[in-house]
Amino acid sequence: MKQEFAIIEEWLPFEIHPDTPPEGILWKDYFPGMNPEAFFRQLDERGKKMGVRFGSQPLMSNSNLAMQGGEFAKEHGKYDAYHEAIFRAFFTDCKDIGSRSVILELSEDVGLDAVALDSAFESNIYLPRLQATTRKAKANGFSAAPTFVIDGYGSISGAQPIDTFRTILRGVEKATNLEPLATTN
Asked: Looking at residues 38-59, what average pLDDT do you find?
């Protein structure tokens, strides 16, 4: 997409369920009537087409520390690698990304200083930023992650097919008389 369109991205932390207990909670307990196995099986089927695999994650982790870790990773130039590691750990490997030890291990795996990250957790240096962006997201009606905000269009909630983005971005280009960077079929 970045080769086709002039995209400036900024990832902001947003806790969808900040009330999740620190130890996490089973999906079926948080969402009575949900069938987590069927949900993740469906995600896996959809993800296969894009090379993304989903395990049957039984636990909804508290994402607070993982998101604070993302802010630390951003400041140290490792956000993309960290984000990918957290995503894979939670959705593919079914690890608890609410666990401090899991986050510290993943941070080391992507080349971050786990001792410095642990100190950041102790000082809560990133907590106010996380809380502020979560409040702002909720005030703007965002209730899903990811949510993409596109100037000249509005927002798109949740994972969507790549062609959805292409269609919207082409429409924005036309509406704003921008020249496309590249053309694709």
From this structure: 92
β-pairing verdict for 59-60 and 147-150: unpaired
CA proximity to 107, closest of 71, 53, 56, 59: 71
Query: What pLDDT does residue 93 have?
Result: 97
Tell me the range of 10-14, 101-105, 133-137, 142-146 where mean pLDDT is highest. 101-105
Q: Taking 60 as the threshold, does the pLDDT of residue 52 lie above it?
A: yes
Extract long-range pairs of 103-112: CB within 8 Å, 24+ residues apart. 103/65, 103/66, 103/69, 106/69, 106/82, 107/69, 107/72, 107/73, 107/82, 109/85, 110/73, 110/78, 110/81, 110/82, 110/85, 111/78, 111/81, 112/72, 112/73, 112/76, 112/78, 112/82
Closest-CA residue to 178 (of 6, 36, 61): 6
Mean pLDDT within 69-74? 97
Residue 178: predicted pLDDT: 62
48 CA to centre of own chain = 18
Name the DSSP class of 51.
T
Q: Are 89 and 106 in contact (CB under 8 A)?
A: yes
Contacts of 9 (CB under 8 A, 6+ apart): none
H or E element: which one contains 120?
helix 114-123
